[in-house]
Amino acid sequence: MKKILFPTDFSDVSKNAFIYALKLADAINAEIITLHVYELDSPAYLDVSIYLQEIYEYEELSDFENYKDEVPVLRKIAEANNLSHVKISNVLIQGYLVKEVVALSKKENVDFIVMGTRGVTHLREIFLGNVTTKIMNECNATVLAVPEQCNYTPIERILFTTKFNMDDIEPLKKVLALSNVFHSHIDCLNVKPPHTVYKDDFVVDFKNVFKDQDVAFHSVLSDDIEGVILNFIEKNNINMIAIHERHRGFFEKIFQVSLSKKLTFHVNIPILSVH
Questions:
Q1: Is the whole model's pTM more than 0.70, yes or no?
Q2: Which InterPro entries match (predicted)?
Q3: Considering the domain boundaries, does residue 189 fall inside one?
């Protein structure tokens, strides 16, 4: 059975994303592991050391009580969506979220990580990245990020952004496997600046590899890469965008932020980050 890791802070953003985790689990016959990570904050006073253990015990107890109350809420969400048959296990860990997500995803060999994302509140957070984009970068599992304003709709059309380089073929195969489960169509979109010659554009090879699949290929000449992508999403009723996550390269030249990070903050459809 496949495994989906669902980090949660039990916020409304997280509960909204849980519906996507349930739908994905049902489609691929997977179990969900929910993960709640809490941190213990040390008091900023030097003269309360004798009370530290008592403070930590109180914080741990409070977090456990909150956890105990919230776990049944996730089960109710499953029941409300007729998905109570999906196997769900729950993990409570004290530590740091990104570190624990990376560790547990490796330990359990998870296939997907599904989590909600709030986006950013100011420019500084774009360049430093938020929790979701850090997990995208550090985990080898495929990450599905669900923006807070995103309401679940069936996955009928998936957009895959590409430069038609050969190293995009394997990630596209992963997206194709998911699209076959959802019986959805894939649009591959390449946006490139005009007046530029690309010698590494293997669109013909892409068409040959995926000739018998429900995949369409589009190339657009424009300097406004993000604008073209957002416009394509709106005009074609895209339900999910899939991105080959790179640590360096073409997409990261846009304001020194990878395309997946930028779109996480601008698009109200789920974003699939594929390594």
A1: yes
A2: Rossmann-like_a/b/a_fold, Universal_stress_UspA, UspA
A3: yes
